[in-house]
Structure formats: structure tokens, C-alpha cells
Design brief:
The complex is a heterodimer.
Chain A: E1 4-10, H1 14-25, E2 30-33, H2 49-55, E3 62-64, E4 70-72, H3 81-84, H4 94-104, H5 110-123, E5 126-127, H6 136-148, E6 152-154, E7 157-161, E8 167-169, H7 176-182, E9 186-188, E10 192-199, E11 202-208, E12 214-224, H8 227-237, E13 249-250, E14 253-259, E15 274-276, E16 283-288, H9 292-301, E17 314-321, E18 326-330, E19 339-343, H10 346-365, E20 370-373, H11 387-392, E21 400-402, E22 405-406, E23 425-426, E24 429-434, H12 449-466
Parallel strand pairs in A: 1-2, 1-12, 2-9, 4-21, 12-24
Antiparallel strand pairs in A: 3-4, 5-7, 6-15, 7-8, 10-11, 11-12, 13-22, 14-17, 14-20, 15-16, 16-17, 18-19, 23-24
Helix pairs in contact in A: 1-7, 1-12, 5-12, 6-10
Chain B: H1 3-16, H2 24-36, H3 40-61, H4 70-82, H5 88-106
Helix pairs in contact in B: 1-2, 1-4, 1-5, 2-5
The chains are: A alpha+beta, B mainly alpha.
Chain lengths: 471, 110
């Protein structure tokens, strides 16, 4: 393979694939480098142990340190997070966009953004779930909310169904990566980028390939799309330190396993599509993957594994907050992995407890018999009064997790306050672009993939305009 | 990490949770592959804990963990969990979570 390209894209998730296929279709010479393996969506069962081991970064064994540990999960395979997530799609609400604009001192071109959303929604076929899919667990949320007169709605997903209701998630390996490759794009997998550097307006990318050899590639431009943890980590390792990795945001999530009187779960049960937006943007409530394996781990945390025999009457529900707290990504001397910290504020804990109460209220209203909280303590919730036991626990005993990470290299209008311009390039080196969740200004309060893809398209179009004389 | 320790600890946490002893080899391979993929500083800490764990067990029983009988393995895990021994409780939990999720997946195949 040759070593010089017009553009090198590091990562292959949604934020990478949008510019990648657009550049390839324009005839630009593009190399995409992915650390994980290349396998199609059907190679391993969704949400299985095999998938966790093969397609998650560090096999899902990643933690943000702080007063309460927060387990986080990110995809690490060709297609990135789109291969392993639930595929729920949202646009960022207008009032959140306004907050972003005020906080980060720039304005979005709303019609351009809407045009990008429309384009992305067609590309990945955003649609409602086929009626034949089993939604008993998810509908319990709807039932509880209807009883309480709270807003609960079905969230669309990037999915394509046949007439019988069999669907395939429109992940990047199903959609944009084939388009990228068909138009002459180059993809190498199982290659870890060690560092990036610039000399005389040429960027160099040092890569360890699958045989353990170090290879150097060069390019005019780099698009960094390695995710909200690895993108800042790579920049820090490469000597770009100004405002990088210091403003990490995430959606810390608390869970209950709920036991009902009737069967709501089965081996075929997959993703649940109802979400409660009554308390948005502070709190978002939904239903999680509830395979027997996932339930067993949750029950074991609270020493209640004996209840697993009733797993068909159980499902996992979550309450997710948009925190005030901030985290960081840093290097530890002598180690290669990024070190992630996240500090929840007093208000964040209040919101976690508030969300926990509201979630319990919905579940009891829908007929839940028992709730097993995600805490490292032997607690079973039989009524709303029992929730005080969770509040009384040491905060270290809360088992929080997240799959939404962002804002570690945020876009902003002021060069001295933010690392990245609103067009997506680093203020310190305008030939290096960032295109993933890192660039979001703050919590979108919803699943971030839609926003990441829409902003990636806007910035890719602005980039094409910038280099139009070179095409 | 020592494969004998991984296998014997996986076997022990399955027994401790009153689960059927089957597929232990497959489960311990999964547990090991999870551990080796952890972030490097985390893996370093786990390897150190494994060494301390082996030393502690040897001081108490004059045998290594994989040479203990089931009842002694069980009582060691029970002691750590009930007394919430710092760090070792997390070490056991690491094995327990990974072993249990794989156990139930294997016992729930279509």
C-alpha cells in the first residue's frame, strides 16, 4: 500500500464515515485507519458476550474514576459505535442547541443543520420499529406513563425491515463503509495510531499494524474520529495539549431490574424503543437490553442472583441524567491506555435520585412487584418508601454506567477558550479536523449519534468548499 | 495471568453462586480474554492483586488456590465477600461478573 494520501481518517464510526464517503465520492484520495477488527453486523450476535469481547473497546472493561465509578462502553471495530449501539435516533432539541450556542459562543446555521439531519435520516433509513417486534417490556414504560399522565413516546431507529418485520440495523458496515470502499476509499483495520505530527504543512501518522510493525503515513489533512476518549488521548500523546480532554461529558445512568407478574422477556427480545421525555433535558428514562446474561450480572451486583429463575418476567430500565459535572481524559506515565475521570456534582446526585424515584414510580404504576437497583448492596425495592435505602447508601455503592460520551474537544467560537473551531478544525493546526462525539458543545440530552453525523456532514461540506480549488 | 488461577477462580465463583458446573473451560477462556483486554494500568493492578491473592492464600492454607479443594476455595471467596476485604472484593467481583454473564449466555442458547 502507498504511504501518501490527501486525507487520513482515524477511526471508522459514524463521525468518520460521513466525511469518508463524501470525500471518496468526490474522488479524493482517502485512507481510513481503524484499531478494531472488520466484521459485518451478522458475524456476532448483538449484545452477546462475544460482541462485548470483540467489538467493545477494552472488551467493555472501561471505567471513569471519581467518587462513584462509572462504567463506560464504546465500540472498537470497523463501524465504531454504530455496530454495537441500539440504533435509537434523535435530533438535538432546539433549546439544547440554543444553550450550546450561548455557552460556546457561536451560532449554528439552522437550515444547514436541518438539511444535514434530513440527509442523514435518508442515508441510514431512520424509521419506527416494525409492529411484529416484541415490545412487551418497553410497553410497560408506556403503560406506567399513561397511568401517571406523563409523556412517553416511541423513538425511531436506523433500521431497515422487510415485509415480515425482519430488520437489519443500518450501521456503518451496512451503509456508508461499502459506499466509501466502492468509490475508491482505502480501509485498514487492526491498526493502532500511535501518534500524529505535522512538518512543513504535511501531517504524519505513525501506525502499529496487525503484525506489530510501525508504519508511517502522510497526508495533507487528518480527520480524527476515534471517539470522545481516544481522540483527545491521541492528541495529548502527540503534544496537542491546549484545552484538550478537559471538558469530557457523559450521561451517567442508573438502572433497575424490574420484576412483573406477567412474562415480558424472551430470548428473541432485543432493543426497546420507548423513552420518557417528561423530565427532559434533566432526566431521560428508557428500557435497556435485558438478556438473561445481562440480567444475571445486574442481579448479582445486589446479591439477588437467585431471582434469575424469573427472568422472563424481568426487564432492565434506566434513568439517565445530563450532568453538570465534568470529566477529563489524560495520560498516565508508562501506560498506554487513556485515564478517564468524571466528577459528579451535588446537583448531579440529586438528579440521579430524582430520576430513580420517577423511574420507580412509573414501574410500580405499571405493576412491578419488585425492583432490583444497580447498587453493590443487598437491597430490594418493594415500595416507594424503600427508595430511601438507596439514598442512604455510600455513593461509592452506586453502580452507574454510560454509553454516551462527548465534549472532550468541544467546538467553540473563541480561539482562546476552545480547542476546536465551529468548522471542526483545531485552532492550533487547521489541517487537523475532529469529527466525532468529542466536538459536541455539551450534553445533547439524547442519544448523540444523530447530532454527530449531522455536524460531521456540515463540517465535511465546509471542508470541501475550503479545498474546492484542489479537487 | 496464570491460567490455572483463572480456571480455578472461575470454577470457584460458579460453585459459590450455586450454579451447575458445566462449560467451565469455555467460561474461563472468556473471563481470561476479558481480563487481557482491560486498559493496561487496570490489567497491571489486577495482576498485582492476583499475586497478593496467591500469597495470601498460600500463607493461610500452605497451598496455591488451584490446589485447594472446593470447600476451601468456597470459604476463601465467602470470607472476602462477606468481610468486604478492600481490593480483593473487587478482584472477586471481576471474575464473578464475567463468569456469570457468560454462564447464563451459554445456558440460554437457542
Amino acid at each position: 500500500m502507498k504511504n501518501k494520501f490527501k486525507i487520513i481518517i482515524i477511526g471508522s464510526g459514524p463521525g468518520a464515515c460521513v466525511p469518508a464517503y463524501m470525500f471518496a465520492e468526490k474522488g479524493l484520495d482517502v485512507l481510513m485507519i481503524e484499531k478494531g477488527t472488520n466484521s459485518s453486523i451478522s458475524d456476532v450476535d448483538s449484545f452477546s458476550c462475544n460482541e462485548i469481547n470483540k467489538k467493545y473497546k477494552n472488551a467493555g472493561m472501561t471505567v471513569a474514576y471519581g467518587k462513584t465509578l462509572i462504567n463506560y462502553a464504546e465500540g472498537s471495530c470497523v463501524g465504531g459505535g454504530s455496530e454495537v449501539n441500539s440504533g435509537l435516533y434523535h435530533r438535538v432539541p432546539d433549546y439544547i442547541l440554543k444553550k450550546w450556542e450561548q455557552k460556546n459562543k457561536f451560532s449554528f446555521d439552522k437550515s444547514f443543520l436541518n438539511d444535514s439531519y434530513n440527509h442523514i435520516e435518508k442515508l441510514i433509513n431512520v424509521s419506527l420499529m416494525h409492529k411484529s417486534n416484541d415490545q412487551r417490556a418497553s410497553l410497560k414504560l408506556k403503560e406506567g406513563c399513561d397511568n401517571l399522565n406523563w409523556e412517553c413516546s416511541e423513538i425511531p431507529r436506523w433500521y431497515k425491515y422487510d415485509s415480515k418485520g425482519n430488520g437489519v440495523k443500518q450501521s456503518m458496515t451496512e451503509t456508508l463503509i461499502p459506499r466509501f470502499l466502492k468509490n475508491g476509499g482505502n480501509l485498514i483495520d487492526e491498526c493502532e495510531v500511535l501518534s500524529i505530527s505535522s512538518r512543513n504543512k504535511i501531517n504524519f501518522v505513525s501506525v502499529k499494524n496487525k503484525n506489530g510493525n510501525i508504519v508511517k503515513f502522510s497526508s495533507d489533512f487528518i480527520f480524527l474520529s476515534a471517539g470522545a476518549i481516544n481522540s483527545p488521548h491521541l492528541l495529548l500523546k502527540s503534544g496537542f495539549k491546549r484545552k484538550i480532554g478537559k471538558t469530557l461529558k457523559m450521561h451517567p445512568t442508573f438502572k433497575f431490574i424490574s420484576l412483573f407478574n406477567d412474562k415480558i422477556n424472551s430470548i428473541e427480545n432485543g432493543v426497546h424503543v420507548h423513552q420518557v421525555k417528561e423530565f427532559s433535558p434533566k432526566i431521560s428514562i428508557g428500557c435497556s437490553i435485558s438478556s438473561k446474561g445481562m440480567l444475571s450480572v445486574g442481579l448479582n451486583d445486589s446479591n439477588n442472583l437467585s431471582y434469575i429463575s424469573e427472568w422472563e418476567k424481568m426487564s432492565t430500565y434506566y434513568s439517565m441524567i445530563s450532568p453538570e459535572g465534568i470529566g477529563s481524559v489524560s495520560n498516565i506515565p508508562f501506560f498506554n491506555s487513556p485515564f478517564v475521570k468524571f466528577s459528579l456534582t451535588k446537583n448531579d446526585y440529586e438528579n440521579i435520585y430524582f430520576g430513580m424515584y420517577k423511574l420507580a414510580e412509573i414501574l410500580f404504576s405499571a405493576g412491578a412487584k419488585l425492583l432490583f437497583p444497580s447498587v453493590s448492596s443487598n437491597i430490594i425495592i418493594r415500595s416507594m418508601d424503600d427508595l430511601s435505602k438507596i439514598k442512604a447508601l455510600n455513593k461509592k455503592k452506586l453502580n452507574l454506567m454510560t454509553i454516551h460520551l462527548f465534549s472532550s474537544i468541544p467546538m467553540g467560537g473563541l480561539k482562546n477558550k476552545f480547542p476546536l473551531s465551529p468548522d471542526g478544525y483545531l485552532y492550533d493546526n487547521d489541517s487537523i479536523y475532529v469529527s466525532d462525539g468529542s466536538i459536541l458543545c455539551d450534553s445533547p440530552s439524547v442519544n448523540p449519534q444523530g447530532a454527530i453525523m449531522a455536524i460531521a456532514r456540515m463540517n465535511a461540506l465546509k471542508f470541501l468548499e475550503r479545498i474546492k480549488n484542489e479537487i | 495471568m496464570n491460567s490455572k488461577l483463572v480456571f480455578s477462580l472461575t470454577h470457584a465463583v460458579i460453585l459459590f453462586n450455586n450454579l451447575e458446573i458445566k462449560n467451565v473451560k469455555k467460561i474461563s477462556i472468556f473471563v481470561n480474554s476479558q481480563i487481557i483486554k482491560m486498559p493496561d494500568y487496570f490489567l497491571f493492578a489486577v495482576k498485582c492483586l492476583a499475586v497478593y491473592f496467591e500469597i495470601m492464600i498460600y500463607i493461610i492454607h500452605f497451598r496455591r488456590f488451584h490446589n485447594l479443594n472446593n470447600s476451601k476455595r468456597n470459604s476463601s471467596i465467602s470470607f472476602i465477600k462477606k468481610n468486604n476485604i478492600p481490593f480483593f472484593n473487587l478482584f472477586i467481583r471481576l471474575f464473578e461478573s464475567n463468569a456469570i454473564i457468560k454462564y447464563y449466555e451459554l445456558n440460554n442458547e437457542k
